[in-house]
Amino acid sequence: MMHHTLSPIYKFQLIQTNLADAKRLQALESDLISSRCAEEEAKEKLSNLAQLNFNLEDKVASQARVIDELREDLRVKTSTFKLLEEYGRKKRQEVVDAAGFYTWQTIKEHHEIISSW
């Protein structure tokens, strides 16, 4: 059996190549770790955005309910105001009619008193 010996220069080149490959492998591992960290950060940010979106939708729905309640309150108050306005108009007319009747009654009574003299 023949034993081959490698020349020192070839051994040195082989060591250099292995070191370069090891550095490239280390860089790739570092990139992979960074990518995984970035992926985890992206997932966390996406989860946070989803939660913020849910909270925002909840707030919008809540505000929509408040707006609906305010609209209903305004509708009731407007309706009540119109009823009170109509009631006020009727009462004013009653006062005017009563004042007119009182004035007519007073004139009639005075006329009767004067006529009886």
Protein model, in words:
With 117 residues, this protein is an all-alpha fold. It is built from one helix and no strands. The longest helix is centred in the middle third of the chain and has 109 residues. The radius of gyration is 49 Å and the shape is rod-shaped. 0% of the residues are buried. The model has no long low-confidence stretch (mean pLDDT 90).
How does the SSE layout of this entry go?
Blueprint lengths: L7 H109 L1
Query: Taking all residues together, what is the mean pLDDT?
Result: 90
Proportion of residues in helical segments: over 70%
Please state the overall shape, judged from the principal axes of the Cα atoms. rod-shaped
Gyration radius, to the nearest Å?
A: 49 Å
Structural class: mainly alpha
Question: What is the subunit arrangement here?
Answer: single chain
